[in-house]
Write a structure and sequence with these properties.
The complex is a heterodimer of chains A (about 350) and B (about 425).
Chain A: H1 2-10, H2 36-51, H3 54-57, E1 65-70, H4 76-87, E2 91-96, H5 108-117, E3 122-127, H6 132-140, E4 144-149, H7 155-169, E5 185-189, H8 196-204, E6 211-215, E7 232-234, H9 238-244, E8 247-250, H10 265-272, H11 276-282, E9 287-289, H12 302-305, H13 312-332
Parallel strand pairs in A: 1-2, 1-3, 3-4, 5-6, 5-8, 6-7, 8-9
Chain B: E1 6-15, E2 20-29, E3 32-37, E4 48-51, E5 56-59, E6 61-66, H1 79-88, E7 91-96, H2 107-114, E8 123-126, E9 128-129, H3 142-148, E10 153-154, H4 163-175, E11 180-182, E12 195-196, H5 199-204, E13 208-209, H6 211-226, E14 233-235, H7 241-252, E15 257-261, H8 263-267, H9 289-300, E16 306-307, H10 316-319, H11 336-347, H12 352-357, H13 361-366, E17 383-393, E18 412-422, E19 425-429
Parallel strand pairs in B: 1-4, 1-5, 6-7, 7-8, 9-10, 10-11, 11-14, 12-13, 14-15, 15-16
Antiparallel strand pairs in B: 1-2, 2-3, 5-17, 17-18, 18-19
Helix pairs in contact in B: 2-3, 4-6, 6-7
The chains are: A alpha/beta (about 350), B alpha/beta (about 425).
Amino acid sequence: MANRRSQSATAQSPSPSLFSQPIHPGSAISATDFSVLEVRRILESADLLEAENPFRRAERLAKRRVALLFYESSTRTRTSFELAAKALGADTTLVSSLSSSIEKGESLKDTGITLKALGAECIILRSPYSGGPYLLARATGLPVLNAGDGMAEHPSQALLDLRTILQFLQIAPRKIGEKALRGVTVTICGDILHSRVARSNALLLPRLGANVVLCGPPALLPETAACMTPGIVIERDFDAALRASTIVMMLRIQAERLSGLQIDLDDYRSRYQANADRIAVHAPKALLMHPGPIIRGMEITAEVADGPQSAIAQQVHNGVAIRMALLVRALGEAKKGARR
Amino acid sequence: MTAKPVLVRNGRLIDPASNTDAPRDLLLRNGKVADLSAPGKIKVRDADVIDAKGLVVAPGLIDIHVHLREPGQGYKETIATGSDAAAAGGFTTVCAMPNTTPINDSPEITRWMQSPDRGATVAVLPIAAATVGSRGEFLTNYAALKDAGAVAVTDDGRPILGDDIMLQALRAAASQALPVIQHAEDTRLTGGCSMNAGALAFRLGLRGMPVEAESSLVERDINLVRKVPNAHLHVAHLSTKKALDAVRAARKSGLHVTCEITPHHFALTEDRIGLYDTNAKMNPPLRGESDRAAMIEGLLDGTIDAIATDHAPHAAHEKEQEFDCAPNGIIGLETALGLAIRILHIEHKMPLAKVLALLTARPAQALGLQGKGTLATGSSADLVLFDPAATWTFHAAGSKSTSKNTPFDGWELSGRLQTTIAVGRVVFGK
């Protein structure tokens, strides 16, 4: 029996808990990671990088190594992060769950350590699990850019949405401050419960002075959503929300996360669909946004998605500039040594 | 082998079972309390003397809810290491849950767990599965399990949802005078959930377990207890005000319903999760402040019968995962006394004797553990010596448990343990 005990004694790990390890300050995991001043700098940097000569731009992160680690499918986010990294001259590699040792059961922690050993200096992670990026950041000590984690957050989407909103309102990034969006009402409508885009936007926009209205049926929008941060209200009547809105963000119903929840889709469409009649009557001047992927005929009709008020293509376009700014923020500081 | 007698002298004896709180010397001989007298009265030659000056001498603590992981999960814990951790926390009796590999649903495994070959340093009393394989279909053989040493039956972790099978379990257990322990969670309401439901779960993007998943099953079980004469329901690790209120009402109406709560449910709220720290992931989940306050209330007013740790060791690689993927549970044996003294005695002014009762006499009574939880003359020489005024810092890395999963790493606790004696033998000592 003494033997059984001594074995366990040698198995003791002297290292402190993974959960007390620091997170690299260049990480972008939550929309709350950025101060208002940092938001301004990121958006200014996005403008600058977008306008820059492509050959000079490609020297900024020349030969730096960026890994894209994707545990969920993605078109927009993955492509724009990859194009952003390449535009800055970085080498990129894509690891996705279907073509890697993830399939063999390798943990996120071990995958991160492996990527670091291969020379990755920054990891862009999409995870089906809320909080995954924190684990990866603690395990590797590298800057981690959150490309969407479970139902939790999608901060780069919130920033590119902000850029789109500012362009529409003709507000220059240098004007960004705590009152920049005063008087602007942004309605986010749809499956709020399962949406990381909704959470990141709802956490970011009120800090710049915007009113955020969340809209949707109780099953997809619990009352507790309004507790997230001050400046958020819930409005169940979509038409009323539209009448108050400068900006309208539509969300799809995330069928893959419903987990048994039953939604009457006909009823949903009649109450919450952004269709031409409804928009013409209640929000004829509002900007219509959608983070994609859109399900035409469900939360938004083709007419509205492709219509003159739609900013959907502009949002996608803005993704590259914002993600360039986040990569420079993450890696530009690495040379000076990570602050801890 | 007959060990030398042990004289514990100059201590302050607190024995809640006999309502004693007085200076006493104790003589331990042949594993029993042989004598109990005013200081200096016991004359004995050739005894090992333990000076307990400035220390509280209390019955060895009893934890009626631990997971020792044997058989089958020795990488998390063994009965040997788990009992070492128990001794280091002042416990001399622990009741081991049946969710092992294989599940303890047989007299053979129940006996195997109690074999001297397991190397336990404190008493390990198995709690057997209530149904075969804990599948909730067919009852196990309660008479045979009791005969083999099981002190209760439960499908802990896989709650018994079916009304019929729960009713059968209560009937069969009543005929053997065994309690049925229920992990009260209606799992039909908690699929995919990893924390308490509410605003924080929404903010973190995690699915939340509603309070009703616990309280509705407690209410259901209480209604079933009404139908069975002499049935005894024991609610494991209760965590919500709503369920506690149901237990309180059931007790008032004369039903034999008991309950336990864990130190973490009176010490912590869901805020401890922070940025997805899996050392704060357990089931039942940490709740909000109003539920935590209700747990303190239930301890103070006596509705809660016992503090039980739900000691649940998991390997680092299992806990170092995404929050949704990590297993539930934390180790708890070495922090229970320190948390109880700090939070209940010092912060909430609960008399020390009452705190100790929740860790000794009352859990013994709740599960009907004969001769346990008291230091009356003739009882088992299980005792703990600690300095109630001393504070100390708990370091997970120094835990005797094979696993280190705890949310209390680095916490300052009260009541420093000096010595643990089980059946007259020192099993832990500084």
